[in-house]
Amino acid sequence: MVPAVEESSFLRACRGATVGRVPVWFMRQAGRSLPEYRALRGSGSILQAIADPALACEATLQPVRRYGVDAAIVFSDIVVPLHAIGFGVDVVPGTGPVVASPVRGPGDLDRIRPLEEDDVAHVAETVRLVAKELAGDGTPLIGLAGAPFTVASYAVEGGSQGFTRLKTMLYAEPKTAHALFDKLTRAAIVQIEEQIAAGAEAAQIFESWLGELDRYDLEEFSFPYLARIAEAVRKKGVPVIFFGTGMGGHLERIAALGFDVVSIDWRMPIEDARARLPGAAVQGNLDSTVLLGPKEAAVDRALRIVKAVVDAVHAFKWK
Amino acid sequence: MVPAVEESSFLRACRGATVGRVPVWFMRQAGRSLPEYRALRGSGSILQAIADPALACEATLQPVRRYGVDAAIVFSDIVVPLHAIGFGVDVVPGTGPVVASPVRGPGDLDRIRPLEEDDVAHVAETVRLVAKELAGDGTPLIGLAGAPFTVASYAVEGGSQGFTRLKTMLYAEPKTAHALFDKLTRAAIVQIEEQIAAGAEAAQIFESWLGELDRYDLEEFSFPYLARIAEAVRKKGVPVIFFGTGMGGHLERIAALGFDVVSIDWRMPIEDARARLPGAAVQGNLDSTVLLGPKEAAVDRALRIVKAVVDAVHAFKWK
Q1: Cβ contact (<8 Å) for A164 and B215?
Q2: Kindly report the CA angle at B90 between B86 and B91, in degrees rounded to 5?
């Protein structure tokens, strides 16, 4: 009998249901840490690889085969929509996204045209191929999209170069910033809806740099757009995961945005996140730098986190 | 009548006493944002400038004269002890600390000899000169020292190049890391004791990169050393201020370390910090990037923070 994906430990955990064991998957599980991925990729750009659904499907499946992770995540990138509309972005190995002509004022907004379904047909096709491959074993597939502040940080700064230009835009040209974030929110929603329609069973939204904003800028320039994206995904009936870093000062407000799951970094104890995020499931917490140390240290740290989660869940239930 | 420095709004606030108005001072208030500082400095290295007590005294006093800030902070740097013992560190404009031969294993520990009082005599002399100048107007002077993880990040990485080498040392060679942190803790205590003996009326301890560690590494490799430094400073009878960034996931544990004041960054609402740091005064919270926007935005953000503090203090008292 084929296991039902809806009964997978990952999707049950996303919904806050009891699971027999803690489901595991990794951020960046697909990619250059795997020898088979390096063999598959060759020398092209990552955006070229993403544009090839057969290759992207294989990259998505490699970690599922090697590690038996409890979920696959589509091999894609948060700058795919910008690239798809011809904005002029590349992802340079060791550097990250690089933009030739960044957004520097209202005159640049026209260069961000609305994302059409056809623009991300290659990602949808990857999702279809992966979903077909995974149908046999009940492993769920996570789709992804970038949230506006984080995608804008590349579009405005021109790359991974801090946040001073974008923050200056928030202070000096708030209308331009809102217009940009509105466009990027619409693009994120189209991107994720297409992946869900193609078979993604969950969606992770990357507002990776949320922690760089203060509470006032979050409330004006990030949270409203995040809530719109969360609502759009939930309307499609799949769990929506929020990912950010440096969120320790804002968890209670993030809890109110409507996400089913919050993916935290290592910068807070996971049981504190559990207590401060009522109504959401919590995942993450391992500092991936531990993988550079001895294997024992990495295993020990991972087990400590799982134990902290299990203890917190039990304490929570026993109340 | 000369106003008593102990009755200054800054020192009263450090002790949690009522103040007539919120005292103000700025991180990096002495330095290159001031035209008179650039004129004073000329082209030498900042460590050369720190080594010249007359020049360092003048740099310390410039922001007090220009802005009428409620406290002066000694013009010094957290890598001064490393430099003073001949470890081989420079501070490169636009880059930060650069170390020629970083600590890469236990064999490098001997290169960090104990800091002697004479090694930091120039900083003590600066403090004496400033204290003499400020004696007339009751403005307190803050001394400073770097905490072990942060100073080690420069000593081990070789500069502002992330934390992967130092974190790998924590996992792979914890004994070497502890030996290094113990040496740097002793150096921090000598450095701050000399400044207090010379007339500093408060001390700020910079564990600037605390937010990069997870709770397990903090508990093993940072908190015990911070508590030792806090205790040493408090024994000298002056308030001790803790500065770190990205602390939102750890405030309750930081509250237990014995600091009188916690200096937070902009990554959490200040009233939340107030509530989560019982027994400590709270300062900071302005994202300095706002200074790149229009003046109105900077004034508005600063006023919002002061209002949030005042409201929180009143709410706290009315309970």
Answers
A1: no
A2: 145
Question: Dihedral through CA A34, CA A40, CA A45, CA A46, nearest 10?
Answer: -50
| Residues in B touching A250 (Cβ below 8 Å) | 248, 267-268
Q: Enter the tokens of residue A211.
A: 């922690």
Q: Give the number of C-alpha atoms closer than 13 A to the C-alpha of residue A142, restricted to the C-beta side.
A: 30
Structure tokens at A70: 């409890």
Q: How many CB pairs under 8 A join A and B?
A: 100
Q: What is the DSSP letter of B114?
A: P
The partner residue sitting opposite A246, judged by closest CB among B164, B267, B273, is: B267
Catalytic-residue membership of B41: yes
Whether B154 is a known active-site residue: answer yes
Residue B145 φ/ψ region, left for φ over 0, alpha for ψ in the -120 to 50 degree band, beta for the rest: beta
User: pLDDT per residue over B35-91, tens digit each?
Assistant: 999 999 888 889 999 999 999 999 999 999 999 999 999 999 999 999 999 999 999
What is the C-alpha separation between A123 and B262, in angstroms, rounded? 47
Asked if residue B122 lies in contact with residue B114, where contact means CB atoms within 8 angstroms, the answer is no
- The 10s digit of each residue's pLDDT in B148-194 is 999 999 999 998 888 999 999 999 999 999 999 999 999 999 999 99
What are the tens digits of pLDDT across the range A189-241? 999 999 999 999 999 999 999 999 999 999 999 999 999 999 999 999 999 99
Enumerate the residues of chain A whose CB falls inside 8 A of the CB of residue B297.
Answer: 171-172
SS3 B232: helix
3-state secondary structure chain A: CCCCHHHCHHHHHHCCCCCCCCCCCCCCCCCCCCHHHHHHHCCCCHHHHHCCHHHHHHHHHHHHHHHCCCCEECCCCCCHHHHHCCCCEEEECCCEEEECCCCCCHHHHHHCCCCCHHHHHHHHHHHHHHHHHHCCCCCCEEEEEECHHHHHHHHHHCECCCCHHHHHHHHHCHHHHHHHHHHHHHHHHHHHHHHHHHCCCEEEEECCCHHHCCHHHHHHHCHHHHHHHHHHHHHCCCCEEEECCCCCCCHHHHHCCCCCEEEECCCCCHHHHHHHCCCCEEEECCCHHHHHCCHHHHHHHHHHHHHHHHHHHHHHHHC
* CB contacts, 8 Å: A282 with chain B: none
Nearest of A259, A287, A284 to residue A272 by alpha carbon = A284
Report how far residue A47's alpha carbon sits from residue A96's, in angstroms, rounded to the nearest whole number: 11
- CATH code for the structural domain at B5-245: 3.20.20.210
Structure-token match 């929180």, residue found: B312
Domain extents in chain B: 5-245
